[in-house]
Amino acid sequence: MDAFATEVKATDSKQGLDCGHATGASHPATQPPAGAITFKQSEDSKETLDRILHPLVKQWFYSRFPCYSVPQKMAVMEIHSRQNVLVSAPTGATKTLTGFLSIINELVDLEEKGLLEDRIYCVYVSPLKALSNDIEKNLKEPLQEMEAIAQRRLGIRVAVRTGDTTQSERSRMLAKPPHIFITTPESLAILLASPKFSAHFEGLQWAIVDEVHALAENKRGVHLSLALERLQEMAGHMSRVGLSATIAPIEDIARFLVGTSRDCTIIDVQYLKELDLQVMSPVSNIIGTPYEARHRRMYELIHELVQQHTSTLVFTNTRAATERVVHNLKDRWPQLYAENIGAHHGSLSKEQRLSIEERLRRGELRCVVCSTSLELGIDIGYLDLVILLGSPKSVARCLQRIGRSGHRLHEKAKGRIIVMDRDDMVECGVLLKSAMEKKIDRIHIPHDCLDVLAQHIYGTAIAHTTTDRELYDLVRRSYCYRDLGWRQFMDVIDYLAGRYVSLEERHIYAKIWHDEQTGQLGRRGRMARVLYMTNIGTIPDESYVEVRVGDAVVGYLDEAFLERLKPGDIFVLGGNVYSYRFSRGMVAYCGASPDRPPTVPQWFSEMLPLSFDLAMEIGRFRRLVAERLNQNMAKEEIVRFIRDYLYADETTADSIHGYLAEQHRFSMIPHDRLLLVEIFSTEEGTTFCFHCLAGRRVNHALSHALGFALSRLQSRDVAVGYNDNGFFVQSPKKVQAVRAFELLRKEPLRKVLAVAIDRSETLLRRFRHCAGRSLMILRNYRGRTKRVGRQQVSSRILLNAVKRISQDFPILAEARREVLEDLMDVERAQLILDSISDGTMQVKELSVPLPSPFSLNLVTQGVADTLKIEDRAAFLQRMHQQILAQIALKERSVQKARDDADSS
After folding, report:
1. Which candidate, 841, 844, 816, places its Cα nearest to that of 831?
2. 127: phi then psi, degrees, rounded to nearest 5
3. Which of 451, 617, 663, 764 is the most exposed place for a label (fewest CB within 10 A)?
């Protein structure tokens, strides 16, 4: 390990690795004063709200609704008073009307007094174009109804501006701006740099951010947080209103919404809807039932549930599964499913998706099956059931999906989770308990994203001349940049100002001018505004990668799948097995490997990661059951405990007990305080299976670090696999995997991983994404679009160029941060290592004759790709029979030893 540690330190010293970002500051970087976050506890009375509503608005409201909803009683007065407000409530809890009621009231009042000006009073930001169109429709209808009551035109204008808006519509908005302006984060950023249109934002009074929970956990949210700070600078005093579904930690979401130095009132009304949740298995014995019988019963169960309800939404987690479910339902019951069923996912055309949404709204569809595309609050009408096929992997996502049912206030949200394997059964049982008890998993909010920062510095310079210190202070008012160091900020300024002269050889020129003496900066070049507006945004271009063996093209892979491959990884494509070697641009070069088992499953890139908090809850549940099994409690007692603890039915509780008891009898049960390493031999060599139930992002980090450590310690390239429940390393030669894992604690994991990913495909592709966001690589230039393949080739050349400049070059540092913090979860992986160091978690090694019940899914996930679905199920059943035989043999040996001891 000394050699490994020396290499990490030497590389760190030589390259100046700043695995996150530097925080050194020649400019005093005092923390902005924090605003107060408070929870509103009491509702305003009906009389209070009646008093502030204009008579016309009040008459319209009571013609549509019998009374104010809880969110309205809590939030309308706050919004009316121009306070910053975050409203967190389940789907169907009138969040949208709550956000707009005060604003419509104000506009109606101004119109009546003749004071309504031709300017924007409210900006509404939505993450989805479809949601923006929904809101426009849902705002125009009430205004038309008020006009019918008043028998005159009010003249209150509502308009949508997205990438789909026509040039004529844009011109009309510029000449006569809407009073309520609906847009997306990307379109808002473009308009902030448009001198004519941005003038309409002066005096802006409200900014509403809808589905804030969906934006906060990715770079679109970071992009929006800076756009809101720039908008606030233009508007003066502007009230921010956030509308969110169930989310945690809600205080952090409030700070994300309003920035670091402003107050915010949180209105948390999560408990309006009762939940009717149930975990269901199609068969009583998941592992023992033949595949055909199990899947036939699954489709029968879905069919029965759909037929028992008026309108059902089914979530599948993957696009392929969505199409498969629709096909099977139509094929098995053609007389019942024809035009009344539909599929909805991101690969369908916009027209097809809109058609499904509209038909569902009109009540024409009995069942819609989707992947993740209908999670957000697009208006799809009334649903009385949501079915989840498999685990949604987080409590918040579960509640968001199931909240689509009972889409009216106070109606019961009804959800059924159908599980098809035993790991899923345990996971969904604990997830259901957490949902019932409102234990919401925390989301990850990215911070200090230097590529997004570069985009906004450029946009600000295009809009007007400013100084570096003014801009730095504005940026740090964003919650996502609260800890941004002056040096980090100036590194981005230096890149944009063209101080890295060698980059001009790669056709990267200065985008701004910056006077180091005065600190002033502004745009450079006549094409600046065009370049900015045609290249901004945070969603990277994705494409399919061509797979070649020699000169022959054998198929195509999803780019997200490719970025997880390292040389030597084995995968299946079109039924054949290949070994990944290297890639150039959008071509992956591979070798045929028919005799080697795959290490990476085909569906890996589509998997949702298990949340860390839910993983910890599952680990705790395992521990509680393990304690009872270790005390030799009767099966009936333990089943009763599982039933009561998980709110499960008798069949589910019995199945979970059977699974955990098998693991206990074969080996031991790993849990939140025990990391079990099972070691067994196969034809491929020795396998070390680390049972670390911490979620895929954490296990990605730990397994990658371990594989790197072994390659340096013993010059061994090992096969590595991971999922939510753990990871494994496999080698035909002798390796010291457990010792290497324990020695990982000697060095900060962030530094180890920064060295480990330095030459990886993952870093290269993430660098391409960051280079695109920071406008190092222009996707569009003078009317021409650069294909993804050309972008990838450019990024490879660029990556080598910036490494020669500095390992701390800001866009490279950001790519590294994105891999370690957003793709992986290096912080929580470090927590696992720290808990081992301080004794909170034990590590135990155990040699076993074959994979244990808990290891089975993990170590066979790649092998299963080489088999037909039916053969895969039969293979798992054979493995299970071997496990049961081994348990019987072990228990006979123990009993014999006891008998011998008694007789002696």
Report:
1. 841
2. -75, -15
3. 764
3-state secondary structure of 370: strand
**DSSP-based three-state secondary structure for 116:** coil
Q: Distance between CA atoms of 306 and 313, rounded to whole angstroms?
A: 9
Residue type, 245: A
| Cα torsion through 339, 340, 345, 347, rounded to 10 | 0
Q: What is the mean pLDDT of the chain?
A: 87
Q: How many Å apart are CA 666 and CA 852, to the nearest integer?
A: 7
Rounded CA gap, 728 and 746, in Å? 21
Say how far residue 811 (Cα) sits from the centre of its chain. 22
Nearest to 163 by CA among 661, 537, 497, 521: 537
**Tens of pLDDT, residues 775-794:** 998 888 776 776 666 776 67
- pLDDT of the residue at 870: 57
pLDDT at 817 over 80: yes
Residues paired with residue 572 on neighbouring β-strands, in sequence order? 577
More reliable by pLDDT, 271 or 41: 41
Spatial distance between the Cα atoms of 149 and 141, rounded to a whole number of angstroms: 12
Distance of alpha carbon 322 from alpha carbon 305, whole angstroms? 17
244 beta partners: 88
Mean pLDDT, range 222-243, rounded to an integer: 95
- CA torsion angle 575 579 581 583 (round to 10): 20
**φ, ψ at 280 (rounded to 5°):** -125, 140
Pairing mode, strands 587-592 and 576-584: antiparallel
Element (H, E) at 123: strand 122-125
Across-strand partners of 38? Answer: 265
Torsion, CA 112, CA 115, CA 117, CA 120, rounded to 10 = -80
- Per-residue pLDDT band at 138 (split at 50, 70, 90): confident
**DSSP alpha helix (H) spans, 482-603:** 486-496, 528-535, 559-562
- Cα separation of 109 and 54, whole Å? 6
Q: Say if CB 163 and CB 133 are below 8 A apart.
A: no
Backbone angles phi, psi at 294, to 5 degrees: -65, -45
Reported residue count of the chain is 904
8 A C-beta contact, residue 468 and residue 514: yes
Cis peptide before 810 (omega within 30 of 0): no
Q: What letter does residue 341 receive in the DSSP assignment? A: E
Query: Is 136 in contact with 159 (CB distance < 8 Å)?
Result: yes
pLDDT in tens, 337-375: 988 998 887 767 677 778 888 888 888 999 999 887 788
Sign of CA dihedral 425, 430, 434, 437: positive
Residue 566 confidence (pLDDT): 77
Q: Which of 774, 855, 852 is nearest to 809 (CA)?
A: 774
> CA gyration radius for the chain?
29
pLDDT band at 25 (very low <50, low <70, confident <90, very high): very low
| Residue 889 scores a pLDDT above 60 | yes
Which of 750, 533, 509, 751 is closest to 8 using CA atoms? Answer: 751
**Cβ neighbours of 736 (radius 10 Å):** 16
CB 104 within 8 A of CB 60: no
Considering the chain, what percentage of its residues have pLDDT values greater than 70? 89
Secondary structure of residue 634 in the 3-state scheme: coil
Predicted pLDDT at 617? 96
What is the rounded distance in angstroms from the CA atom of residue 581 to the CA atom of residue 54? Answer: 70
**What is the distance between the alpha carbons of residues 671 and 620, in angstroms, rounded to a whole number?**
6
Q: What is the bridge-based pairing of β-strands 587-592 and 544-549?
A: parallel
Q: What is the pLDDT of residues 280-328, one digit of tens each?
A: 989 888 888 888 888 899 999 999 999 999 999 999 877 778 888 888 8
- Strand duo 37-39 + 264-268: pairing: parallel
How would residue 607 be classed by pLDDT, with cut points 50, 70 and 90?
low
Q: What are phi and psi of 700, to 5 degrees?
A: -60, -45
Judge contact between 125 and 188, C-beta under 8 A: yes
